[in-house]
TrEMBL record:
CDD domains membership: PSAT_like (cd00611)
Chain positions recorded as pyridoxal 5'-phosphate binding sites: 76-77, 102, 152, 172, 195, 237-238
Enzyme class: transferase
Species this protein is from: Methylomonas paludis
Species lineage: Bacteria, Pseudomonadati, Pseudomonadota, Gammaproteobacteria, Methylococcales
The protein's name in its UniProt record: Phosphoserine aminotransferase
């Protein structure tokens, strides 16, 4: 067996230790005589797995007691539609900031359920920066303000949490949750699909402040009603049990790395050396404003796009996989989530230098 360095944007590489433990426990989870896949979600074994998983997430993110943590299905994309239906609170308007492809999708979907006020947009820059914070327009009758803390496709990441006074701040953290320390109490609601930094696809984490519960519109399906799910520990119906288990293993692994403080330091180091290599080269270029370059997703283009195919072919042959950029932007993208080792980043940098030397 040989494993490649997998730079996929999501689903993405997982820690080998996690995969090995899952393999080890596949047929018989800790003496239960069954696979986690085969367990009743109401039985004592799975309840223990679920409780430990939730507590580990609360510990890692230091989630205050006045927040509920939900584990839902439907991906982050389902939340694009569910957030307005759950927290508009009788209002008709919500404010959104557009920093790239994922905020654009969130805005489009929210527009089916409310009037979207576009508070700020980086579209004219080609989504290579974050609009200056003090220029954002937020109407006083907007129910909340939504932004995307890391734009997975454009490689743009907020370096700080925007200060929006009293309005509930809602954030799509799908591609940078668990990658850095941050203060949960600044937010009304945080959501993230698992398949970037937390595990396989199929489970979406929603962290919601208590005062935003109980506001759900009557037409919303019960399984997507935040308060009903909070009351039933996200088990209103059968959850994605195996995905919860794998998410739990990734959280345990994250704790063994030293938690978010240690993980953040490693991520800073990995991202810095990759951007430095790109900036120092003649062949490669990253278009993003240095202040807002993502630590998770590093897009880059070659000075001669005619070399793209050859770059990808040789990279694949060298065990560096899934480097094509998103089809909407082209070029290359290296996603270097928590589970991408520093050795993987070093191997990519060495390969890029060698490719530049020989082309
Ligand atoms: C991947 C991603 C999504 C979409 O997630 P799904 O689980 O496929 O719906 C949304 N937002 C961001 C920032 C993402 O990276």
């Amino acid at each position: 067996m040989s494993r490649v360095f997998n730079f996929s944007a999501g689903p993405s590489t997982l820690p080998v230790e996690v995969l090995e433990q899952a393999r080890q426990e596949m047929l018989d989870w800790q003496g239960s005589g069954m696979s986690v896949m085969e367990m009743s979600h109401r039985g004592k074994h799975f309840m223990a797995i679920a409780e430990a998983m939730k507590n580990d997430l609360i510990e890692l993110l230091a989630i205050p007691a006045n927040y509920q943590v939900l584990f839902l299905q439907g991906g982050a994309s389902a939340q694009f539609a569910l957030i307005p239906q759950n927290i508009l609170n009788g209002k008709t308007k919500a404010a959104y900031v557009n920093t790239g492809a994922w905020s654009t999708s969130a805005i489009k979907e929210a527009g089916k359920y409310c009037e979207v006020q576009l508070s700020a947009s980086a579209e004219t820059s080609g989504f290579t920066t974050v609009p200056t914070l003090n220029t954002w327009q937020i109407d006083s009758d907007a129910a909340y303000l939504h932004y995307t803390s890391n734009e997975t496709i454009h490689g743009v990441e907020f370096s700080e949490i925007p200060d929006v006074a009293d309005i509930p701040l809602v954030c799509d953290m799908s591609s940078n949750i668990l990658s850095r320390q941050f203060d949960v109490s600044r937010f009304g609601l945080i959501y993230a699909g698992a398949q970037k930094n937390m595990g396989p696809s199929g489970v979406t984490v929603v962290i919601v402040r208590d005062d935003l519960l109980g506001l759900t519109q009557d037409t919303v399906p019960s399984v997507f009603n935040y308060q009903l799910q909070a009351k039933s520990d996200s088990m209103l119906n059968t959850p994605a049990t195996y995905n919860w288990y794998l998410l739990g293993l990734v959280l345990q692994w994250s704790k063994r790395q030293g938690g978010l403080a240690a993980i953040e330091q490693t991520n800073i180091r990995k991202a810095q050396k990759l951007y430095q290599a790109i900036d120092a080269s003649v062949l490669y270029r990253n278009p993003v404003d240095p202040e807002y370059r993502s630590r998770m997703n590093v897009p880059f283009v070659l000075a001669d796009a005619g070399l793209d195919k050859e770059f990808l072919r040789l990279a694949d042959a060298a065990g560096l996989s899934s480097l094509p950029g998103h089809r909407s932007v082209g070029g290359m993208r290296a996603s270097i989530y928590n589970a991408m080792s520093e050795a993987g980043v070093d191997a990519l940098i060495d390969f890029m230098a060698e490719f530049e030397r020989t082309h």
